From TrEMBL:
Ranges where the Carboxymuconolactone decarboxylase-like domain occurs: 52-112
Organism, scientific name: Janibacter cremeus
Keywords: Oxidoreductase, Peroxidase
InterPro entries found in the cross-reference section: AhpD-like, AhpD_core, CMD-like, Uncharacterised_peroxidase-rel
Protein's recorded name: Putative peroxidase-related enzyme
Amino acid sequence: MSEQQRPISFLRVPGVEDVPEGVQRLWEKSREAFGFIPNVFRAQALNGAQFEAWWKYFNLLVNKEGHLTNAERELIAVVVSGINRCTYCAVSHGAALREYSGDPVTSDLVAVNWRQAELDERQQAMAEYAELLTRAPGSVDESDLEPMRAAGMDEHEILEAVQVVGMFNMTNRVSSALGMAPNHEYHSQAR
């Protein structure tokens, strides 16, 4: 099946006439910035108000100036998405990690097994915590934050890392449940 024929979601994907004005504006900004509309924006817009609420928090947490760098947030996103086997997020955020890090080899390794990537102490601490919170959230306790503290992370950075792990666990589940297909543009981005 060609990329054009493959559905981007198991559910109906709304047209521009079916979504709120705010979603229409976001779609247009995406087209101007990236040259395409991310499929996640199209598929989740079926419930426009819910999509806009999710996007507002996601954008604040992942795309705005924060306590972590863009590359660090994308590293966490790719670790979580790889563990959860979320195709859409592993591919799309793998592309973002390649772009922010300038390192396509490490980005690809992180998507499959972050332990095989050459990560520094801080990156390793974030990846290890992201894996623990993703695989065994009921086992997490205060001592599990220690490697991030030992790597020099302050409480604001640790909280942001935890929030990014949580966001991607939720987003991975939505994307996987709806069978979201990544845009083909992501595969060649930053290579």
